[in-house]
Each structure stands twice: as structure tokens, then as C-alpha cells.
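Example 3.2
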Amino acid sequence: MSKKLINPGPSRRGWHRLQKALRCPRLYALAYRSKSGRGERLPSKPLIKGSLFHMALAHHYAQIQEQQEGKTETEYYDPIESVALLAKEQPKKHIPEWESYVADVQRVYLDYKVRWASRQWKVLAIEKEVCANIHDEERNETYFYTQRVDAIWEHPVTKQVWFVDHKTAGRVTQKTVGQYSMNGQMLGYGMFGRQMFGDRYGGVLLNFIEWPAPGKSPKFERRRTDPAPFAVSRFKKTIIQAERIIRDNEKTEAVEWPGAHNTTACWPYGPCEFYETCQYGVKP
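Structure, written as C-alpha cells:
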């Protein structure tokens, strides 16, 4: 039987695209509305390592779900193998850089597997896409909105259901947790979780992986996001605002969409992939 390789990428019409529109309308347009000016910049080291580890965990929990459902033969690639396969799927010129992190990610994954071996929540879903139709009453338009949840777990004792988001970081502190609690991705989880599970919904659980410092061991911990009931209740308006930005500019050439031009937008983890396009325009 041929094995499956999970695609843990963005959902069809999710927060990542709307986040781009809110961060910088031109970034959104160049990413989704233009074939010219597309950057070919190699992702940053944290993003590469995070993507590789995310792939390992997707397969790890897919296999746990199979075991919990009584399946004796897995449909999925082994987590260790999946990391190497993801590296090989990158653009040819980027493969060597991706492959340079594979062994380290695999070692940390094996430590993770040991760390949580005795604490098995019930896995209800992995890489689950959830969907909603968001109605803009003022404009009488309806926007299709989606998010992909890394995993949905049920606590073995309380039976509460949690949306789980895997996060890798150089160092995990209370500040690290705080920066995610108001992130649109987490607010969206809150919106969907309550709708899907009602009072059984426990919240968002951040599954942190802290990369090891030289000569040290990795650290693993799980923390719930801080409650943000007001932000969750207003998140629909945030979605509508982002969609309006897109609608208001959709007839404009991508490179002419408004640019944000601030350090946070243009240089978050190194230069934006379209940095040179904003500097010099699209080459004829």
C-alpha cells in the first residue's frame, strides 16, 4: 500500500491570506493576484525548521489517531521520513538548505515523542479544515472563510475538546504565549470551536517546541492561550474589513495596490519576499 504524505499547508481561504491584506495590501496582491514580481527568496531558518517539525507532528498524530481507532496498518509515512520528503519537495535551488536542517529536526522530534509518550489525548482530527460563511450586512456580500487546525484533541479525563496549534521557538516565555493570544488564527479557532463543540470546547492549546541551545536538550510544554472573549466576539468584523480591502482594490494592478511601508510589514523575519519589487517595481 502506498503511503500518504500529509499537506499541512494553509487552508483554502484562511487567515494567512487575510493577514497579508491587513499587514500590507500590496503584499496580498503580489502573493495572490500577480505572476510577475514574485519573490524567490529562501524562507528564514525559523520558518524552514518550523515547517519541517510541523510535518513530523502531522504524521505523528495521524498515526496515533489510527491506533486509537483500532487500525493495525498505517496509511501515512513515518514522521521521520516525512521530514526528509518535505525537504525534497522544495524548489531545486532551495533543497540543500532545507536538507541541512533535516537531521536536527528529526532528533528533536524523537525527543518530543519520548516526552509525551505517556500523555495521550484522544485525537479527533489532524490538519482539519473548518469553514464558515461570513456575511457583510452593510455591503450585502458573503465571504467564504476557512482555517486549518493542526490537531483537535479531547482530554482523556474532562472530555473537553481543544484546538491544538504546534509552535516552534528559540525560547518559550510567558511573552511568547502572550503574543499568540490575540493572533487572528487563535481568535478564529475560538470562533469555530464554540460553534462546533459548544460548552465542550476548552480553548486553544499551544504545543510548544523549544529548539535546543548548543549542548542543551530541547524543551517541550503545552500552554493554553490567554482568554480574549471581546476579540473573539469581534473577529467577524476583522474578517470583513480584510475582505473589503481586497474588494476595493481588485481592479488595480497588483504592484499599484497600497503598500504598508513599515518595518513590521516589510522586514518581519528578514526582508519580505517582494522587497525588491517594492524597491524597483516589476522588471519589464
